[in-house]
Specification:
The structure holds 2 protein chains of 2 kinds. By secondary structure, chain A is of the alpha/beta class. Chain A has 5 domains: 123 residues, 3-Layer(aba) Sandwich (Rossmann fold), CATH 3.40.50; 176 residues, FAD/NAD(P)-binding domain (3-Layer(bba) Sandwich), CATH 3.50.50.60; 58 residues, no CATH class; 164 residues, 3-Layer(bba) Sandwich (FAD/NAD(P)-binding domain); 68 residues, Alpha-Beta Plaits. Chain A has 18 helices and 33 strands. In chain A, the strands form 11 sheets. Chain A has a 7-stranded mixed beta sheet. In chain A, strands 10-7-6-18-28 form a 5-stranded parallel beta sheet. In chain A, strands 2-1-3-4 form a 4-stranded parallel beta sheet, sandwiched between helices. In chain A, a hairpin with a 4-residue loop joins strand 24 and strand 25. In chain A, helix 1 runs parallel beside helix 5, helix 6 packs across helix 7 and helix 6 runs parallel beside helix 15. Chain A is globular, with a radius of gyration of 31 Å. Chain B is built from 5 helices and 4 strands; from the N terminus they run H-E-H-E-H-E-H-E-H. In chain B, helix 4 links the parallel strand 3 and strand 4. Chain B is globular, with a radius of gyration of 15 Å. Chain B starts with a helix and ends in a 14-residue tail after the last helix. The chains are: A alpha/beta, B alpha/beta. Chains A and B meet through helix 4, helix 5, helix 17 and helix 18 of A and helix 2, strand 2, helix 3 and helix 4 of B.
Chain lengths: 663, 148
C-alpha cells in the first residue's frame, strides 16, 4: 500500500502568485495513494525540509512528491532530506511548477490546472519508483587542463598547488595564450609580459605540472573521476628535451620569408623558429609547410648547426592516452575575421588593421620594436581612427549578436597609449555605446577623454576609401551632432568581436559538454554553478564560457580549479544509479541493445536457466555494466522483447506520467 | 479562463524533453518569463532516445492531441548519438502514423538547446497552434480509457 506525501511550495510569491497552491495541495490529496498533502512557503528552507522529514517519519511515507522549482535546481536538496528521514532519496519526485508553469503562464486558473496535472504525473511516477543505491567509483587523482592561456595556467597552478598532478595541454608550441600578444593591460597600463611571463615560468617549474605544448586533445571517453583522454603530440621536429633554445638554427635557416603568426603576419620569421623570446618551453619548432628539408628533402642547415643534436626530420605525430579525474576547459577566444566588413576596406589596405595587430605594433617585442609605424610605408601615423563594435552587437550574419565586453576598454587603452607616446597624433574613436562596468574602468575611459584628449564620437564609420599615398579617406557619421564627418586617416584600427576558439567545437563533442548558439561553453547553472559544465567532472575557465577580461578570467580559473580540487580530493564518487538493466527471463540475446549503446556498456553472457520441465537451458543474455552505463535509455527502445529497462525512468513510470497528464 | 477560451478547443499536448538540453531550455524559458500555452505538459527523460514509440501511441490512446519530442541539436547529444537514434526512430514512426491517417502535424521532433529558452517557447506555441488547427484526436483515442 502506497503512502505518498505531497508538498506544494509557494516559493515566496514566485509560484503562489500564478498558481493557487492551496487548491493544488487540496486536489492532489484526493489522488490514489496520497495520504498527506500540504503547502508551505519555502520548501527548500530548513523549516521546509524539516517539515518533509517530520512527515516522512511521522506518517511512514513510502514516496514523496515536491511541487516546486525545477529538479535541476533542488532535486539533490530534497533527496538528501528524504535520506535524512530514512526514506531512500530515489523515492522522491519533483513536479516543476515554477519554471515550467508559474513563470510561463499568466492565467491563474490555467496555471493551477497545469500544476495539478504535473503533480498527478509525479505522483503516478513516484508510486512506481524503486529505492536505488548508487554504486561507487574511484577517482583518478590527476587533472587535465586544456588550453594554456592565462586561464589554463592559473587553473593548473592552483590544482598543482593543492597537491594534484596536472597535464596542461596547448595546441600552440608555447604556453601563454593570447595574452602573450598583448602589449599593456587595462586599467593599470602595466605591461602584460611583466605579469604573464613570471607565471609562465612558475608553470614550467612546478613539479606537479606536466606541460604538453603543441598537443591536441583528440578523444575523451569515460566519466567524472575516470576520464580517458587521447592526446595527439604533433610533430615538432625538435626534441624539446635536447633543445637549449639558443636560437642559432633560426638565424641560419635560409627560409626567412614565412609570415610570423605571433606578430599577426606583420613581419616574417624563419621556417624553424622560436615563437617569441619568452616562450615556454623555450624550444625551437619547424614549420613543416615551409621547411625546405621537409618539403623538398634539400637543406638540413638547422640540423648541421645544432650542437645538442635536437633536430629530427623524421619526427611524426604521436598519440598518448592518459587517465584523469577532472577536466578543466580553458580554450579561450579569438578575434573574429573582419574580411566580411567590406566598408572598412580591411582587405584593400594594409593600413586598416585589427586591434590585436595594433597591439603588436605597439609592443616592444612587435615588428617595429614598439614604435608605431603604419604597415604600408613604415611612416609614423598622425591621424588614427578607431572603430568599436566591429562584429559585436551585430544582428546581421556577418557578426555576433553579443557585446564582446572588453573592446571599449582596450580601445580606450590604445587611444591613451598612443596619445601618451605620440602627443602630436590625432585619435578618433567611433563607438556605439561605451560599456565600462568594472573596477576603475569608467574612470579609465574618462581619463582617455578628459586628460588625453581622445576624440570620442558616437557613431560609426560608413566607408573607408584607400588612397594612392596609403592614406585612408574615412567617411563617418556623428549621431549626436547629426552630421557626416570626413577624416583623412593614416591608420584605421578595428575592434573585432570575440569568438570561441576553433578547437572548442570538437572538444565539446568529445566531452559531451553543451555549447550555446555562439559556440561558448554553457555552464551548469548561469548563476549558481557558473564554472561547471553540465557534464559532471568538466569545469570551465576563462573566455571559453563567454567574453571576459583578464581579471574575470583569472577569477574564474581559480574557481574552476577549486571545483576540480573538491572532486580530486575525494577517494570515491557516488555514481548515477539510474542505469539500464535487463530482465534475463525476457532477454533473447538478440544483440539489438549492444548495437545502439554509445558506451559499449552491454555485453552478453551465457546463463543457465531452469525450465518448467526441470531441464536446464543455457541461453545468451544481455548484461549491463552499471559502472559504464550512463543511463541514456537508447537500449530500452531498441529492445524488441521489452527486457531492457532503466532505473528511475522505467517504461512503466513514463507511461504512468503519460496517463496522468492525459487524464 | 474566459468563456470564449473555454469553448475553444484546448488540445492536450505531451512534450518529452531530454534532461540535458530541452528540459533546461524549458527551464530557461521560465527564468526569462517567456510565455507559451499551458496546454503543453513536459515529461523529463534522460535523452530523447529514451522515448519509446509506445509512449507516443499510449499518449494518443489516452487522449493526447499532440506529442512533441525535444532533444539536443544533432552533434550535441549528451550521450553522443542519442538524438540520431531519435531522429531515425521517429521518422519511421511518424511515416507509419501518416500511413494510418494520423495527421502529420500531431507529432514533431524538435532540437532545443539549453540556451534556447526563447526558441522553446516559440516551438511550443507554434506546435500548439498547429494541433489546435487540426482539432481533437479522435482516431487513436481509446474511449475505454475514458470509461472510468
Amino acid at each position: 500500500m502506497q503512502k505518498i506525501g505531497v508538498f506544494v511550495c509557494h516559493c515566496g510569491t514566485n509560484i503562489s502568485a500564478t498558481v493557487d497552491v492551496a487548491k493544488v495541495a487540496e486536489t492532489l490529496a484526493k489522488e490514489p495513494g496520497v495520504i498527506y498533502s500540504t503547502d508551505y512557503q519555502f520548501m527548500c528552507s530548513l523549516a521546509g525540509q524539516n517539515l518533509i522529514i517530520d512527515k516522512i517519519k511521522e506518517l511512514d511515507l513510502t514516496g514523496v512528491v515536491i511541487c516546486s522549482c525545477s529538479p535541476r535546481m533542488h532535486e539533490l536538496t530534497f533527496r538528501k532530506a528524504a535520506d535524512k528521514a530514512g526514506l531512500n532519496g530515489f523515492l522522491l519526485e519533483m513536479a516543476n511548477i515554477r519554471e515550467q508553469d508559474a513563470w510561463v503562464h499568466k492565467d491563474r486558473e490555467e496555471a493551477t490546472l497545469k500544476a495539478v496535472a504535473l503533480g498527478r504525473a509525479a505522483i503516478a511516477k513516484v508510486a512506481l519508483n524503486e529505492a536505488l543505491i548508487p554504486g561507487e567509483s574511484k577517482v583518478t587523482k590527476r587533472a587535465l587542463v586544456i588550453g594554456a592561456g592565462i586561464a589554463g595556467m592559473q587553473a593548473a597552478l592552483d590544482i598543482a598547488d593543492a597537491g594534484f598532478s596536472v597535464d596542461l595541454v596547448d595546441i600552440e608550441p608555447t604556453i601563454g595564450g593570447l595574452m602573450t600578444q598583448v602589449d599593456k593591460t587595462f586599467p593599470t597600463l602595466d605591461c602584460a609580459s611583466c605579469i604573464l611571463t613570471p607565471k609562465m615560468v612558475d608553470v614550467q617549474q612546478h613539479e606537479l605540472i606536466n606541460l604538453m605544448t603543441f598537443c591536441e586533445v583528440e578523444k575523451v571517453e569515460g566519466y567524472i573521476g575516470n576520464f580517458i583522454a587521447t592526446i595527439k603530440k604533433k610533430a615538432r621536429y625538435v626534441d624539446p628535451d635536447a633543445c637549449t633554445g639558443c636560437g642559432l638554427c633560426t638565424q641560419k635557416c635560409p627560409t626567412k620569408n614565412v609570415l610570423n603568426s605571433f606578430n599577426l603576419n606583420l613581419d616574417n620569421r624563419s621556417a624553424i623558429y622560436i615563437p617569441f623570446p619568452q616562450a615556454v618551453p623555450l624550444v625551437a619548432i619547424i614549420d613543416a609547410a615551409h621547411c625546405k628539408k621537409l618539403q623538398e628533402g634539400k637543406c638540413g642547415v638547422c640540423a648541421a648547426v645544432c650542437a645538442p643534436k635536437a633536430i629530427h626530420y623524421d619526427d611524426c605525430d604521436k598519440l598518448v592516452e592518459n587517465k584523469y579525474g577532472a577536466i578543466v576547459v580553458a580554450t579561450g577566444f579569438n578575434p573574429i575575421e573582419v574580411h566580411a566588413f567590406n566598408e572598412f576596406a580591411y582587405d584593400q589596405s594594409p593600413n586598416v588593421i585589427t586591434s590585436l595587430e595594433y597591439e603588436r605594433l605597439m609592443s616592444a617585442t612587435g615588428p617595429n620594436g614598439g614604435t608605431v609605424l603604419r604597415p604600408s610605408d613604415k611612416k609614423h601615423p598622425k591621424t588614427i581612427v578607431f572603430q568599436q563594435c566591429v562584429g559585436s552587437r551585430d544582428t546581421t550574419s556577418r557578426g555576433k549578436t553579443y557585446c564582446s565586453g572588453i573592446c571599449c576598454m582596450y580601445t580606450a587603452k590604445h587611444a591613451m597609449l598612443t596619445r601618451e607616446k605620440y602627443p602630436d597624433t590625432d585619435v578618433y574613436v567611433f563607438y556605439t555605446d561605451i560599456r565600462t562596468p568594472g573596477k576603475g574602468f569608467d574612470e579609465f575611459h574618462r581619463r582617455a577623454v578628459e586628460q588625453y584628449g581622445v576624440h570620442y564620437i558616437k557613431g560609426s564609420i560608413g566607408k573607408v576609401v584607400p588612397m594612392s599615398n596609403g592614406n585612408l579617406k574615412v567617411q563617418a557619421s556623428d549621431l549626436l551632432m547629426q552630421r557626416q564627418l570626413h577624416i583623412e586617416a593614416d591608420l584605421v584600427v578595428l575592434a573585432a568581436a570575440m569568438e570561441p576558439d576553433k578547437s572548442a567545437k570538437h572538444l565539446a563533442q568529445q566531452l559531451t559538454a553543451s555549447m550555446d548558439n555562439d559556440g561558448w561553453f554553457t555552464e551548469s547553472h548561469p548563476k549558481l554553478r557558473p564554472v561547471e559544465s553540465p557534464t559532471a567532472g568538466v569545469f570551465l575557465a576563462g573566455a571559453c564560457q563567454g567574453p571576459k577580461d583578464i581579471p574575470s578570467t583569472v577569477a574564474q580559473a581559480g574557481a574552476a580549479a577549486s571545483k576540480a580540487i573538491i572532486l580530486l580530493i575525494k577517494d570515491k564518487l557516488k555514481g548515477n544509479p539510474c542505469v539500464a538493466h535487463s530482465a534475463e527471463n525476457m532477454c533473447n540475446g538478440c544483440g539489438a541493445c549492444a548495437n545502439v549503446c554509445p558506451y559499449s556498456a552491454i555485453t552478453y553472457v551465457e546463463k543457465e536457466f531452469r525450465m518448467p520441465d526441470r531441464t536446464t537451458l543455457i541461453r545468451r543474455v544481455a548484461s549491463v555494466n552499471p559502472a559504464v552505463c550512463q543511463g541514456c535509455g537508447a537500449c530500452t527502445v531498441a529492445c524488441p522483447s521489452g527486457a531492457m529497462d532503466i532505473f528511475g525512468f522505467s517504461n512503466k513510470q513514463i507511461m504512468g506520467e503519460v496517463d496522468a497528464i492525459c487524464q | 479562463m474566459s468563456v470564449k477560451e473555454k469553448t475553444e478547443f484546448q488540445p492536450k499536448i505531451v512534450a518529452f524533453c531530454c534532461n540535458w538540453c530541452s528540459y533546461a531550455g524549458a527551464d530557461l524559458a521560465g527564468t526569462n518569463r517567456t510565455n507559451y500555452p499551458a496546454n503543453v505538459k513536459i515529461i523529463r527523460v534522460p535523452c530523447s532516445c529514451r522515448v519509446n514509440p509506445i509512449f507516443i501511441l499510449r499518449a494518443f490512446q489516452r487522449g493526447a492531441d499532440g506529442v512533441i519530442i525535444c532533444g539536443c541539436h544533432p552533434g550535441d547529444c549528451h550521450y553522443i548519438t542519442g538524438n540520431y537514434y531519435t531522429r531515425r526512430r521517429m521518422t519511421l514512426l511518424f511515416s507509419m502514423l501518416d500511413f494510418l491517417g494520423i495527421e502529420k502535424d500531431r507529432t514533431r521532433v524538435e532540437w532545443v538547446s539549453a540556451s534556447e529558452g526563447g526558441r522553446f517557447a516559440e516551438v511550443m506555441t507554434e506546435f500548439t497552434n498547429d494541433v489546435k488547427a487540426i482539432g481533437p484526436n479522435r482516431k487513436l483515442e481509446d474511449l475505454r480509457c475514458k470509461a472510468k
